[in-house]
TrEMBL record:
It is a multi-pass membrane protein. It is found in: Cell membrane. Keywords: Cell membrane, Membrane, Transmembrane, Transmembrane helix. Its main location: membrane. It comes from Streptomyces qinzhouensis. Coiled coil: none annotated. The chain crosses the membrane at residues 27-44, 56-73, 93-117, 138-160, 172-191, 212-234, 254-279. GO terms for cellular component: plasma membrane. This is Cytochrome c oxidase assembly protein. Residues 317-360 are annotated as: Disordered. InterPro entries: Caa3_assmbl_CtaG-rel. Residues 324-352 have a biased composition (Low complexity).
Length: 360
């Protein structure tokens, strides 16, 4: 396929890592990345000037996420990705899985909510509009696992195994739209799983892990399908330029291997982040309980001890009543319907008492 419409030369030399990392800025992603960095920096600066703290680690994660987008879209990887399926798959994996995770760990929504000024009474500013969006029905739908997991899967099978991919790759606008779609799908999929920023759905940690593992196997199956194919499956890459010195089928197999192996990397990153968040959450809960105990004199523990004392008193009273009650023989006689004096009366009638009978 001829990609000259969006500035890609078909006479690229054979791919090497050094050539792939050479700068080749895409204006759309370059400007978008710079704007994102500027807005994030403005938010952090506003908090610092106000005297509020913002974790340095979050800033590092966000900057790293933006840099991965620039790596995929503003280097020669983008040029080679137009004619090599394997390089395109590297772009896809980075921008749909690595970049979203790093960006979300930077908590940009939380930063915006803390940095944006509150509008006056009866007015709606950017912060109020953002809050309305976060609580909207639209966000509840697009962040629900019933939507995000099928969307994540369809972005692979519904795109590469249909003619839609060839159509999008036929123009610069289509290519940009596809890469933006990959980034957006990754953000929507990992947002409720990471749980760093506020959102409509905040499942527990175990449920987040299940959501993660529900989508990752399909990435592996997609890669295996590409590796096992005996003919090129994507028309865009069925006739690579001769200057690259590659075979279309071998390049497709390499792309499948990349898709299969790459699914493990985000899984490990997300699991590490979730375990760390789980640990931090338990620590915060323990500190809250300690502060509450210091504030109210440990009333919760005192109430529990009082409850145990009541149980002990009840059990003690029951035992005392059992020790002070009638003898077992009397209880048995009463239970049998006889009077307690019946045995004595019988003994008197025969001239015997219990003691006399025992004496004989």
């Amino acid at each position: 396929m001829d990609h000259s419409e969006h500035g890609t030369s078909i006479d690229l030399p054979p791919f090497t890592l050094g050539r792939g990392l050479e700068l080749s800025p895409d204006p759309f992603f370059l400007i978008g990345s710079l704007v994102a960095l500027a807005l994030y920096g403005w938010g952090v600066t506003r908090l610092v000037r106000r005297g509020d703290a913002w974790p340095v680690g979050r800033t590092v994660f966000f900057v790293a996420g933006v840099l991965t987008v620039l790596l995929a879209m503003c280097t020669k990887l983008n040029d080679y990705g137009m004619v090599m399926f394997s390089v395109h798959m590297v772009q896809h994996m980075i921008i749909s899985m690595i970049s979203p995770i790093l960006l979300l760990l930077g908590a940009p929504v939380t930063l915006a909510l803390r940095a944006l000024p509150v509008a006056g009474r009866g007015r709606k500013g950017p912060r109020e509009l953002l809050l309305a969006l976060l609580h909207s029905r639209y966000m509840r739908i697009i962040t629900h696992p019933a939507f995000t997991i099928p969307l994540f899967i369809a972005s692979l099978y519904g795109l590469y195994f249909t003619s839609l991919f060839d159509f999008l790759m036929g123009s610069q606008v289509g290519h940009i739209a596809m890469m933006v779609h990959f980034l957006a799908v990754g953000l929507v999929f990992f947002w409720p799983i990471m749980g760093v920023d506020p959102g409509p759905h905040r499942p527990g940690y175990v449920m987040r892990m299940l959501e993660l593992f529900a989508g990752m196997p399909f990435h592996a199956f997609f890669g295996i399908a590409l590796m096992m194919a005996s003919t090129p499956m994507v028309g865009t890459y069925d006739s690579p330029p001769a200057s690259l010195g590659i075979d279309a089928l071998s390049d497709q197999h390499a792309a499948g291997g990349i898709a299969w192996a790459f699914s493990e990397i985000p899984s490990v990153l997300v699991l590490i982040a979730l375990v760390f968040q789980w640990y931090r959450s338990d620590q915060r809960q323990a500190r809250r309980k300690d502060r509450a105990a210091d504030r109210d004199g440990d009333k919760e523990l005192e109430a529990y001890n009082a409850y145990l004392a009541q149980l002990h008193a009840r059990s003690g009273g029951t035992a005392g009543a059992a020790r002070g009650g009638p003898e077992p023989e009397t209880v048995t006689a009463a239970a049998a319907g006889e009077s307690p004096q019946a045995p004595a009366a019988a003994g008197a009638a025969t001239g015997e008492t219990g003691t006399g009978a025992a004496g004989r």
